[in-house]
């Protein structure tokens, strides 16, 4: 069990006693749990939701039900479950949770897809659907396109027959990354530098200006996304990797009437019922079954090697998500 004992990445493995299974309790054996940027932010103490310390790390993952209490009605031994909300603490081998903190999911999807289902694909789907009424043939522009959310956006947009313009940071293996994103369904892949050159406007001879921009970076990158938005379009910010503010010129706001919005899945869950979250999960499972949504590129790491996984997840230009296996 991974417990972080302070807000500054102090993590250690620790054996804790399991409580007895009673009433609405569910004994879960964890199968796999990813290391997400939000997990790191939470450990560093700069996330919008912080647990009481000491706490178990990890906000996402998949487990299998071992036993249930007498008043549990929705789950049975053998079922796969994921956290209903953040802060559950998934970096552990097993735990006893309350039934309402868990959502049952189908077992006929790949383990890596199940482990990474509850955060990034949910964020991608909601941002594509909730802010603009997009129709097949419309386009979306995004930065951090090789992130977990970015890869999900590419695939879900492709399934919805939307075109994507995908911006990434330049790197030594840029062609390899471009090919991988295009294999997922990306229509265009550009570096931040390429997005700034005048010739980029030629792309929009072949497709409509994007009405939706998805920003996970901030700073200059988000300003460039805004420049390419259609009049009346919306930029949704869901992350700030550059740790720089979003800057929108007055002329873009006045003459193009652009909208700046934010999205946080935890807030969406607070505003919606658990049944609506379950419906979202089942929609994504349908995409997975149809081969339209795959897990991001993953590296599986045994739980006891958690330090290796955390270090790898914080390196620049990471192209594989670290998944702790129990």
TrEMBL record:
It is found in: Mitochondrion. One of its GO terms (cellular component) is mitochondrion. It comes from Myodes glareolus. Its EC number is 1.3.1.104. It catalyses: (2E)-tetradecenoyl-[ACP] + NADPH + H(+) = tetradecanoyl-[ACP] + NADP(+); (2E)-hexadecenoyl-[ACP] + NADPH + H(+) = hexadecanoyl-[ACP] + NADP(+); a 2,3-saturated acyl-[ACP] + NADP(+) = a (2E)-enoyl-[ACP] + NADPH + H(+); (2E)-decenoyl-[ACP] + NADPH + H(+) = decanoyl-[ACP] + NADP(+). This is Enoyl-[acyl-carrier-protein] reductase, mitochondrial. GO terms for biological process: fatty acid biosynthetic process. Residues 6-324 form the Enoyl reductase (ER) domain. PANTHER family: ENOYL-[ACYL-CARRIER-PROTEIN] REDUCTASE, MITOCHONDRIAL. InterPro entries: ADH-like_C, ADH-like_N, ER, GroES-like_sf, Mito_Enoyl-ACP_Reductase, NAD(P)-bd_dom_sf. Catalyzes the NADPH-dependent reduction of trans-2-enoyl thioesters in mitochondrial fatty acid synthesis (fatty acid synthesis type II). Fatty acid chain elongation in mitochondria uses acyl carrier protein (ACP) as an acyl group carrier, but the enzyme accepts both ACP and CoA thioesters as substrates in vitro. Displays a preference for medium-chain over short- and long-chain substrates. May provide the octanoyl chain used for lipoic acid biosynthesis, regulating protein lipoylation and mitochondrial respiratory activity particularly in Purkinje cells.
